[in-house]
Amino acid sequence: MGRLSGKVAVLSAAAQGIGRASALAFANEGALVYATDINYEKLKEIEKPGSIIIHQLDVTNKQKIEEFAATIPKVDVLFNVAGFVHHGSLLDCDENDWDRTMTINVKSMYFMCHAFLPKMIEAGKGSIINMSSVCSSRIGAVLRCAYGTSKAAVVGLTKSIAADFSKQGIRCNCVQPGTIDTPSLNDRINKNVQMDPADARKMFQARTPAGRFGTAEEVASMVVYLASDESVFVTGGEYVIDGGWSLT
C-alpha cells in the first residue's frame, strides 16, 4: 500500500520537470494519475496504463478544462504546476508579457480550481497544491517582476481557498521552490544572450547557500506529503524548498 493508494490525482504541466517527477511519484505511491500538458508528445513518455492516464490540455482554455473535468467523477488531489518565467524588470515587461504571465501562472489555477473544487466539496475532502516560488511575496529577485508578482498572487489564491473551504474538508497549500534543475531552467540558461551558460549556472548555484540546484524529485517528495493524509491538518501553508536562498 502506497501513501496515496486509492487517491485520484490531476496534474498540469506533467510532461517534464517538477510536474513529471510529481506524476511519477504519485503513481509510485499508488495514486491513479491524470497527467496533463499542452505537449502531448512529451507526455506520452510517462503514460502507464492503469496508473498514469495522459491528456493534452491547455490550462489557459476554460472550456477545455471544464470538458476534461467532466470526464473525471472523482478527484482527491489537484496539483497546479503550469507556469511561465518572464525575464525582465517592470520596464522590460510590456502589456502582452504581463497578461501572458498572469494568464498562465494565475488564471490557469483559477480555471483548474473552479472546475475541480466542486468535486472535492461533494466528496467532503481534497488537497489542492499550487506552484508558487520563493520569488513571490517571500523575496524579490532581480529581473523577475511579472513572474514574482504572479507567484505572490498564487500565495493569495492558496490562502483564500484554504480559508473558504477548510470546513468542507478541503486543504490548499503552495510549494515555493528556489532554483530547481529542470528543462525549463536549462532552456532559459542556454538562451541567455547576456551570459555564457556555464557562467549562468555558476551564478545561480552561488546564490543558493546549499551550493547546488534542487532536483525535481526533491520537490515531488514534498508534494507527495501535501497530497497524502499525512498532511491532513495542514492547509494555507507556503512550503519553501530552496536550499536556503530565501535566507540570504
UniProtKB/TrEMBL annotation:
InterPro entries: NAD(P)-bd_dom_sf, Sc_DH/Rdtase_CS, SDR_DHRS6-like, SDR_fam
Pathway named in the protein's UniProt entry: Amino-acid metabolism; Siderophore biosynthesis
Keyword Oxidoreductase: yes
Keywords, alphabetical: NAD, Oxidoreductase
Uppermost EC category: oxidoreductase
EC number: 1.1.1.104, 1.1.1.30
Gene3D superfamilies: NAD(P)-binding Rossmann-like Domain
Catalyses which reaction(s): (R)-3-hydroxybutanoate + NAD(+) = acetoacetate + NADH + H(+)
Taxonomic superkingdom: Eukaryota
Protein's UniProt keywords contain Ligase: no
Family under the similarity heading: Belongs to the short-chain dehydrogenases/reductases (SDR) family.
Protein name: Dehydrogenase/reductase SDR family member 6
